[in-house]
Every structure is written in structure tokens, then in C-alpha cells.
Design brief:
The chain is an alpha/beta fold. It is built from 17 helices and nine strands.
Length: about 350
């Protein structure tokens, strides 16, 4: 049976060219996605519809032939599974209602995977449609990132880069925040087990808000919860490889790679090439093309792709963006990158 190139890299192998997929590769830059999305009443309903979500997942695979598909879902489905209202305002992004008490959420955490069974149905549909040489990725938001939305609620756009409300809670009400992280670790571990059982061959931990944290908060809110999430997932029977993405924390990347038992570390756009090389000496890496440069295209895009290939191409590396693809990226620029690395 053919082993997908992505799984080869996660096992520590170096492939003739890096396997490639893009964060948010299913999304608004694709006309077929926009047409499909228009058929759903709202974004949450779209995510929870296995037929629609599977189609969204497969659209970029048909168009570009990426080496991996990532299930179309959202990191804020976990708060919904824990009893918090979640909705998306057009042009504004996510909004969350009042957070339930931690004790009530703790009761719901072990059945979070059951509540989100429709995501498992999406994964099963996609796995059945994918060629065996292409990998299927499941994911969840990391505990701290999900907690920031749950704590900030409808104010989450205020101080967006700093996550000011959530960070203030972390200082002022440490027991409340640590209790919430405990719940999210448990719920996410069960969610991961469900995704694996439904066909996910890789699972990714999205820590979108690791940036800007001082050392003590990084350890408490990112490093330790990631360790515990991985350990709890393994206790529940998760055996597939895990990719950790502590976005905005290049200063901690080597320590993260050594201390968190993930199989690869995803790097963001601000991670220096030499830091990526040092992390790659510890375990496989993923990243880190700038989505803004993908939007610009041209010779600068070719040059940066070549720099990444030269710096990291002789070791285990998954080619990806440093964050999600932007809605206004020209399709031709995606094709340009794939041709440059020999994937088309």
C-alpha cells in the first residue's frame, strides 16, 4: 500500500520534494467554494453538514492535487460542544455567548467527540474519495487559543493581536483559566480520538495565539497544555502523528520541539530560516511561506520559495504557508508555487 509522502516526512524521512498542502486551502479564494458556501444558511451549519464540508475539503484537491487534505471545520466547534453559543457575524468574524460554568463544561468534555460526530462523517467521506497516496489531516484549536475566544466572547476583536481580555484573565483569575484549559484538554483529546477513528491520518494542534506571551505565560498557557493534550490523546488511543503549530513563538520553537511530543512543528512566517534549520535537526518541520507574498506573486514569490527549498529541502519538511491562505490570493499564484517546487 502506498504511504503518503506527508506520513513519510512525519516519520522523519526526507522525500525527493517536500509534500505540500496549504492552511485554509479550502476557502474563499476558490470560486467553487464560494458557490458551495452560498447554499448554506450560516457558517456553522456549513461546517456541520458532512456532504458540504466534504465537498469543500475535496475542492482544492481536485484543482491542485495537494499531497494532503485537511478537513473543513472550525476551531470554535469545541466551545459549541461544551455548551457555549457560537455564531459568525458577516464581515466581523466569530462571536461567542456567555461562557458556561467550568463544572458544567467538564461534564460535557468526554462527549465532545460524540457531539461533533458530523465532523467524523466528513472525514469518512473525504477518506473514501481520496487517493491512497494523499493524506487526510484532522485538527483542533489548541487549548489556549480556544480559551481566548471563550473568555473574550463578543469582544474578541478588541486588542486582537494581544488577546487582551483573555491574557488579563490569565493574570487576574488563574484558577478560572487553568480550569478552562483542563476542560479543553479533555474535550480536545476525545475529539482527536473521534477524528482518528473516522479516518484522519494526521492531527494538527492550531495554537494561533501563542505570540506575545512572556516566558512564564508561554509555559503555562501553551507549552504545558500541549504536553498534556498529547499525553491525554495517547491515553485515549490516538496513535496517528501530531503536528504542533505554536504560531508567533519562534523564540521558543526549539524548546517546544524538544519538550512537546508532537511529530512535527509548524513554523510561521516570522521564523528565521536558521531557527527552522535548528528545529529541523530535532524533528520534522512544516511551513513557512508568507501568505501575503503568495498574494503578491511574481519573482519575489519564486525567490522566497527557492530560499525555503535551499534552507530546509535537505531534511524532513512539509511545504506550507506560515498561516492561512488569504481570500484574495490569485489561483495562478498557488499554481506558481506548486510548479516551483515540482508538485505540478
Amino acid at each position: 500500500m502506498t504511504t503518503p509522502a506527508l506520513l513519510q516526512v512525519l516519520a522523519g524521512q526526507t522525500t525527493p520534494r517536500p509534500p505540500v498542502w496549504f492552511m485554509r486551502q479550502a476557502g474563499r479564494y476558490l470560486p467553487e467554494y464560494r458557490a458551495l458556501r452560498a447554499e448554506a444558511p450560516d457558517f456553522i451549519a456549513f461546517c456541520m453538514n458532512p456532504e458540504m464540508a466534504a465537498e469543500a475539503t475535496l475542492q482544492p484537491m481536485r484543482r491542485f492535487g495537494f499531497d494532503a487534505a485537511i478537513v473543513f471545520a472550525d476551531i470554535l466547534l469545541i466551545p459549541q460542544a461544551l455548551g457555549q453559543d457560537v455564531w459568525f457575524e458577516t464581515g466581523e468574524g466569530p462571536r461567542l455567548g456567555e461562557m458556561p460554568v467550568v463544572g458544567r463544561m467538564a461534564e460535557l468534555a468526554p462527549v465532545a467527540g460524540d457531539h461533533l460526530a458530523s465532523i467524523g462523517q466528513t472525514l469518512s467521506r473525504v477518506r473514501a474519495a481520496l487517493e491512497p497516496e494523499r493524506a487526510l489531516i484532522g485538527f483542533a484549536g489548541a487549548p489556549w487559543t480556544v480559551a481566548t475566544y471563550m473568555l473574550d466572547g463578543h469582544h474578541n476583536r478588541i486588542g486582537k493581536g494581544e488577546r487582551a481580555t483573555a491574557r488579563s484573565y490569565a493574570y487576574a483569575e488563574p484558577e478560572k483559566v487553568d480550569g478552562l484549559l483542563d476542560v479543553l484538554i479533555e474535550a480536545t483529546a476525545h475529539y482527536f480520538r473521534m477524528q482518528q477513528d473516522a479516518g484522519a491520518q494526521v492531527l494538527k494542534i492550531f495554537e494561533s495565539w501563542a505570540e506575545g506571551l512572556p516566558d512564564d505565560l508561554f509555559d503555562r498557557l501553551v507549552l504545558e497544555p500541549h504536553k498534556r493534550l498529547v499525553a491525554r490523546s495517547r491515553e485515549l488511543g490516538v496513535t496517528v502523528p501530531l503536528i504542533g503549530f505554536p504560531r508567533g513563538s519562534a523564540a521558543h520553537a526549539e524548546r517546544y520541539a524538544r519538550e512537546v511530543d508532537v511529530q512535527a512543528v509548524a513554523l510561521d512566517t516570522a521564523c528565521p530560516l536558521e531557527v527552522g534549520k535548528r528545529v529541523q535537526a530535532i524533528k520534522p518541520i512544516q511551513g513557512a511561506l508568507d501568505p501575503l507574498l503568495l498574494r503578491v506573486g511574481g519573482d519575489l514569490l519564486d525567490r522566497r520559495v527557492d530560499q525555503l527549498m535551499q534552507a530546509w529541502g535537505d531534511g524532513p519538511w512539509i511545504f506550507n504557508l506560515g498561516h492561512g491562505i488569504l481570500p484574495d490570493v490569485p489561483i495562478a499564484h498557488v499554481e506558481q508555487v506548486l510548479k516551483r517546487i515540482g508538485a505540478q
